[in-house]
């Protein structure tokens, strides 16, 4: 039996919710043309609409002057329906970090974050409204899963960020989105088809998509092993980020409940296979929690686990100072313990960095803003 079709029920979204309107970002170029023809509109206009959306980053129909005025509203509503409305935008780091709380068509709330650095701009996007993985230290995980997002709802977060950069709304002058990380709300691999669709739209050449490099895209997962294996077959060399958070099954069963289904060894092996097939280095995400998973012996164990799969530098550890949620027992590690953790990993030949934390003053941990609304 195909293991990908036997995922546990926890990955099914709640029933009874409607689907978001179909948008050109949900569709291939041929499907966009067919969609307009279904509506009794000229199919060739699909390419013009794609150019406005992906290349010109236009969101005002009045600016689409190459479309006939008599058909413009029909064309726009046919392929460019409104998908999400910004409820709040919060800024930090002198405006170079912008977090947006979005309201979707059915009232679901999701978040995206734009982070501008010297030389690059990264969009952190959500792939689900809520999350069904139930990791106890995560704000999103505590709210449960509302529903999967559509491909277009995922893409729209990036396009909205691209618009704000192109219009000079972010300090530093006009720019472009260079990197996308699927590290916002939700478990990307539990919404696999929509996420892969979004990756394809992001990497399709303009005007069919945004024309980004797959190497600038990172897809994270808490360890849905069949989906990691499937991602290795897609032929899209994105970076895989595995949210491990513990090197031993006893602790990881508590921190990442899906570990009761796929253990550390099987999960890391799937990540190594992804690196081996794609020749792309895997990132191991490890949220540092005081007195929970930051002991020196766990650093040694983590290095031993990762070093068990070849020595060609297939992996990089990204330590994340925990962004605590109000009233939580989960807090960031002591800086001295963090430094010792890094030292021990590096002593065993594991490439390690500590993530540059941004946005703590604007409820930077994904899910915090939605939870307070």
CATH class of the largest domain: Alpha Beta
Overall spatial form:
elongated
- So, the CATH homologous superfamily of the largest domain? Aldolase class I
Helical coverage, percent range = 25-40%
Q: What portion of the residues fall into strands of 2 or more residues?
A: 15-25%
Measured on Cα atoms, how large is the radius of gyration? 21 Å
Parts with pLDDT < 50 across at least 5 consecutive residues: 1-10
What does this structure look like?
The termini are far apart. The protein folds into 2 domains: 24-79, DNA polymerase, domain 1 (Orthogonal Bundle), CATH 1.10.150; 84-372, Aldolase class I (TIM Barrel, Alpha-Beta Barrel), CATH 3.20.20.70. The protein is built from 12 helices and 12 strands. The protein is elongated and about 70 Å long. The model is unreliable at 1-10 (pLDDT under 50). It has a 10-stranded mixed beta sheet with strand order 1-2-3-4-7-8-9-10-11-12, with helices on one face. The chain is 33% helix and 19% strand. The protein is an alpha/beta fold and 373 residues long. It is an enzyme of class 2 (transferase). Specifically methylates position 2 of adenine 2503 in 23S rRNA and position 2 of adenine 37 in tRNAs. Its EC number is 2.1.1.192. It is found in: Cytoplasm. The active site is at residues 111, 366.
């Amino acid at each position: 039996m195909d293991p990908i079709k036997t995922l546990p029920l926890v990955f099914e979204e709640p029933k009874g919710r409607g689907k978001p309107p179909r948008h050109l970002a949900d569709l291939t170029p041929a499907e966009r043309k067919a969609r307009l023809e279904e509506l009794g509109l000229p199919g060739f206009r699909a390419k013009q609409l794609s150019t406005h959306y992906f290349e010109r980053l236009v969101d005002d129909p009045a600016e689409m002057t190459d479309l006939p005025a008599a058909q413009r509203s029909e064309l726009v509503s046919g392929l460019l329906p409104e998908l999400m409305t910004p409820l709040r935008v919060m800024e930090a780091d002198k405006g170079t970090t912008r977090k947006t709380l979005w309201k979707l068509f059915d009232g679901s709330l999701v978040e995206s974050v734009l982070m501008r650095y010297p030389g690059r701009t990264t969009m952190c996007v959500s792939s689900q409204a809520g999350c069904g993985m139930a990791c106890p230290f995560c704000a999103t995980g505590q709210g449960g899963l509302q529903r999967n997002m559509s491909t277009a709802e995922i893409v729209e977060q990036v396009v909205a960020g691209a618009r704000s950069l192109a219009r000079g709304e972010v300090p530093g002058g006009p720019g472009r989105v260079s990197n996308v990380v699927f590290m916002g709300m939700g478990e990307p691999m539990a919404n696999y088809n929509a996420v892969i669709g979004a990756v394809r739209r992001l990497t399709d050449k303009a005007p069919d998509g945004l024309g980004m490099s797959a190497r600038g895209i990172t897809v994270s997962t808490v360890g849905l092993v069949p989906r990691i294996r499937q991602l290795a077959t897609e032929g899209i060399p994105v970076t895989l980020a595995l949210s491990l958070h513990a090197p031993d099954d006893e602790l990881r069963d508590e921190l990442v409940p899906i570990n009761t289904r796929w253990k550390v060894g099987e999960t890391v092996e799937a990540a190594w296979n992804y690196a081996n097939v794609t020749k792309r280095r895997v990132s191991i995400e490890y949220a540092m929690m005081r007195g929970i998973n930051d002991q020196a012996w766990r650093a040694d164990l983590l290095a031993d686990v990762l070093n068990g799969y070849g020595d060609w530098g297939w992996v990089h550890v990204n330590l994340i100072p925990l962004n605590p949620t109000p009233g939580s027992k989960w807090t960031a590690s002591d800086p001295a313990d963090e430094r010792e953790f890094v030292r021990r990993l590096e002593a065993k030949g594991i490439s390690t960095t500590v993530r540059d934390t941004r946005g703590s003053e604007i409820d930077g941990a994904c899910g915090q803003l939605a939870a307070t609304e």
